[in-house]
Amino acid sequence: KAGVTQTPRYLIKTRGQQVTLSCSPISGHRSVSWYQQTPGQGLQFLFEYFSETQRNKGNFPGRFSGRQFSNSRSEMNVSTLELGDSALYLCASSSGSGASGEKLFFGSGTQLSVL
Amino acid sequence: GQQLNQSPQSMFIQEGEDVSMNCTSSSIFNTWLWYKQDPGEGPVLLIALYKAGELTSNGRLTAQFGITRKDSFLNISASIPSDVGIYFCAGQLVRGSNYKLTFGKGTLLTVNP
Questions:
Q1: pLDDT tens-digit readout, B4-24
Q2: Pick from A91, A95, A94, A96: nearest CA to A109
Q3: Which residues in chain B are contacts of A59 at CB distance < 8 A?
Q4: B35 three-class SS
Q5: Fewer Cβ within 10 Å of end Cβ, chain A: N or C?
Q6: Exposed, middle or buried: residue B7 (CB in 10 Å: 0-12, 13-18, 19+)?
Q7: Is the pLDDT of residue A99 over 70?
Q8: Is it the case that residue A102 has pLDDT exceeding 70?
């Protein structure tokens, strides 16, 4: 069973640009969550999508958005990039039952650098 | 919102030593999880705890869910070089369909062979 796939693995952008990150969850999983990881702040929850609908949302500005397609693949978009958006963006998939965190499987992440 | 304090921030130990790390929260969780992250990879779940007082082992790893539901610890016995990595605790409070993990900031473990 293939794991969670995130593309691209690395990205370099400049301030003001926008970026789209992609995540393919484990086959059969309907929930996709996105996290931002930085050395100073650790892992911060961005949002969660389930069946093409945003089900939960963290405390990030509206520049951060996402969507989920009918095949459960998800994309995350960051507009008007700022230097502080440089981070490892992790996607995690789960069955979506919400029962426990043990069903949360992480991808290897996309390392975004904003210059 | 909920915050997790994870300590220590980093540890340098000799191979064969035992190590302990813990997390405390300002509010309760109904699930505690411990993850390990290797360089360049995403976190991998090590142990999940679901009941206050629960003590669970996974090989050389042992974790406990605190009685107050506001804390948890992870012990690694007889450490080996491949234990190197960042260990994260995470708390989860499930209310209907609303659930998300709140992560600690991690403990960086270095094992000297």
A1: 899 999 999 999 999 999 999
A2: A91
A3: 1
A4: strand
A5: N
A6: middle
A7: no
A8: no
Query: How far is B20 from B82, CA to CA, in rounded Å?
Result: 16
What confidence tier does B65 reach under pLDDT thresholds 50, 70, 90? very high
Distance of CA A46 to the CA centre of its chain: 7
The CA-atom distances, in angstroms, between A100 and each of A88, B30, B34, B92, B97 are 24, 9, 13, 8, 11
- Are residues A85 and A112 in contact, defined by beta-carbon separation less than 8 angstroms? yes
Residues 60-89 of A with CB under 8 A from B: none
Measured at the CA of A61, the angle between CA A115 and CA B3, to 5 degrees, comes to: 100
Query: Reduced to 3 states, what is the DSSP secondary structure of residue B56?
Result: strand
Structure tokens at B82: 């491949």
Residue A77 has pLDDT above 90, yes or no: yes
Chain B residues within 8 Å of chain A (Cβ atoms): 1, 31, 33, 40-45, 48, 50, 88, 90, 92, 94, 96-106
Q: Is the Cβ pair A43, B43 closer than 8 Å?
A: yes
